[in-house]
Each structure stands twice: as C-alpha cells, then as structure tokens.
Amino acid sequence: MALMPVAEALEAVLDGAAALGTEMVALDDACHRVLARDIAALRSQPPSAMSAMDGYAVRASDVAEVPTRLRVIGEIAAGRPFAGALGPGEALRIFTGGVVPDGADAVVIQEDTTAENGTVVVHVSVRAGRHVRVAGVDFREGDVLLRAGRRLSDRDLSLAAAMNHPALPVSRRPKLAIFATGDELVMPGTTPGPGQIVYSNGYALRALARSEGAEVVDLGLVGDTVEATVAAVRSARAAGADILVSTGGASVGDHDVVQQALEAEAVTMAFWKIAMRPGKPMMHGRLGAMRVLGLPGNPVSSYVCAFLFMAPLIRALSGRSDVRHMAEQAVLGADLPANDQRHDYLRARLASGADGRQIATPVLQQDSSLLAKLSEAGALILRPPLAPPAKAGSPCDILKLPL
C-alpha cells in the first residue's frame, strides 16, 4: 500500500464522524462539554432598568442646573424596588442593582451629592440615561447566545445561568480505549531489565484525549502476540469504545502484530502508512462503529499522530464545530533545508520577536524518540512535501501544541 498524503488520511479518519448522541447535564458538570443545540435566553438581562452605581435616582431635567436640592422620598436596594413613581423635585436613594423607578431617568453618584436632613444637594448635573443599565442591555428573551457545537467555557456557564438554564443539552463524550504493545515495555517506577524501556506513550495520549473531551479506558500493556492483541481489541469492543487507539506494533517488522490482529478481527483498513514525518507507520480502520487508530511506537511519532488525527476525531465525535487544527503564521528562527516527498512536522520552540511576530525555531534534534525535545517544543512547523529551502526570518505555518 502506497504512502497516503496527510490530508487524505485525515479525511479518511473523519469520514462520517458526527456527534454520538445528546444528554442533559447540570451547569456544574457542563464545563468543556459540547453544546448539542442552540440555546436561547429564557429571560431578559437585566429584566428592568437598574442602577449601575450607588447614588440617587433623579430626573435629569431636575439637575440640569446645579447645585440643586431635591427631596429624598425613599430608598431602593437590589431586590427591593420602589412601589411608586418619582415626581419633579424628588430623588430616591438607590444602590447598585436597584430598579430605577418610574419617573427617574438618571442616577447621580453618591460622591457628587451631599445629604442634608431628608434632602440631597446635587453638585454635578447628569444627562438622561447616566449610570442606568437599561432593560435588556445584556441580552433579551429569545436571543440565541450559545450555539450548537460550542465547547462550553467557564464563562459560558455563567451566561447560561443568567439566561435561566439550570442544565444544558450536550453531546455524549466519545469513549476511547487505548493499549500499548511491546514485550520490552515496563511501567514507570520499575527497574528495566536488559533491553527493556519504560512505557511513556500512554500518559501523553490519555491526557490529550481527556483534554479533548473523551472518556478514556486504559487497557494497559499487551504482549507482542496476535492472540494478546486480538484480546485487547475485543476488550475495547466490550467496553463500548467509539475509538480504539493502539501504540506500538504498527510497523512492518516480524514482531509488529497490530495489523495482523486487526485483520484477524475483520477490521476494515483504510490505510497503514502515511507520507509524513514523524509518524509514517500509522494505521486506520473501522470495526463496526468503532474507529481504530494504530499509532507508531516511537513516542514523538505517537504523540504527533495523536495530535493530528486522534484529537480531531474526538472533536468530530463530540459534535464540535472546530474539528480541525488551525494553522498560524510565524517566522523561522533558523534556516531549513529542502524537504523530500513526506510532509514534515518539525518540533519548534516559540518566542516573540520585537515586532510582536511569533518566531518558531526548530529544535536541533528531530529524532522521533526524543521526548525531551518534544517537551520543550511549543509548536510544529509545517513543511509540505518538496518544500524548497527556507531562510531564517521567512514566513512559515505552525500548529501550536497544547499547553
């Protein structure tokens, strides 16, 4: 099978991916969930004209010439409106959030007045509407303020509450199962024996999946046999996984058994090699409704493939409107040679130039096993196939990595 271009591979991964269903969740549980339908305000905010300051509710025409003395006929606090109306020559003591009474059209702030024996002397004139929040200035009943496909922020929850929604309809979280193959792998905290290495890939992949909104099922380490790998695939199906991610065993060596196991389980394969660096030995297929991503074993390759393909797939199955990563422009901090036939994703450090532009400087070593270099990178520089040499200072496209 020929190497598949990156864009075609992403289209294959995302083909038909859509939200998996809807559930209602309380506001306290809705942060970072994806809104399943448009949400309209159930009330206007504020519902009535309200004071924006502590002071006195007045008629602007009464304070056109100052100083002037007005008779204070009562007090208005938040939640305790005045029952009557304000007449000529009168004022009402009002506090922030108090409902502006009928007859008043402005508020004089407390600092510009002097209270004297049931009256108030106003020293500064105000125009109509001064320090008054008019009804509906924030939003009006029926306004659609939160759209389907939005990943809800903490501020969105406050808005939804003000709109009078105690719960919101959100898309179901995709369930992602993950396992790693490799007889050489041991868990962190143990002492590796001869030829063994400490397992690291899963920690970044699980964290990335959770940060994108997936529910994660960790199937652990799997031995380098077809039988053990088949058992892991079946465990993922039994767990109801929407996405199965494997890491390792996706190459072409005699001990790389993931493809054999997937084919044994009748997974329909879309591709198993991509024209990209790092990450050429990546597989994708489907087993019924479950989507399968076979990631490389090298830790940098594994992470870059997960960032480029797994994260958008999770977003699509979550119903998000922002599925694909958006490239940003930067300038190169170092010269780059011409590229070959594969799409390069160079790990790079980010800095800000004196002119405010982002400077992306490739790390010196781009080997796909170097986690320390991946950790210090803040972005990937995108180098399309057959890109010509590029000088430091020339523009480049980048994808920022998650913080």
Itemize the secondary structure elements and their pairings.
Elements: H1 6-14, E1 22-26, E2 39-40, E3 50-51, E4 55-58, E5 68-76, E6 90-94, E7 106-109, E8 113-116, E9 119-122, E10 132-133, E11 144-146, H2 154-162, E12 167-171, E13 175-181, E14 185-186, E15 197-198, H3 201-211, E16 215-222, H4 226-238, E17 243-247, H5 258-264, E18 268-271, E19 276-277, E20 283-287, E21 290-295, H6 299-317, E22 328-332, E23 343-352, E24 358-362, H7 371-376, E25 379-383, E26 395-400
Parallel strand pairs: 5-6, 13-16, 13-17, 14-15, 17-21, 19-23, 22-24
Antiparallel strand pairs: 1-12, 2-11, 3-10, 4-6, 4-7, 5-9, 8-9, 18-20, 20-21, 22-26, 23-24, 23-25, 25-26
Helix pairs in contact: 1-6, 3-6, 4-5
Features:
single chain, alpha/beta, Molybdenum Cofactor Biosythetic Enzyme, Chain A, Molybdopterin biosynthesis moea protein, domain 2, Molybdopterin biosynthesis moeA protein, domain 3, 4 domains, six-stranded mixed sheet, 26 strands
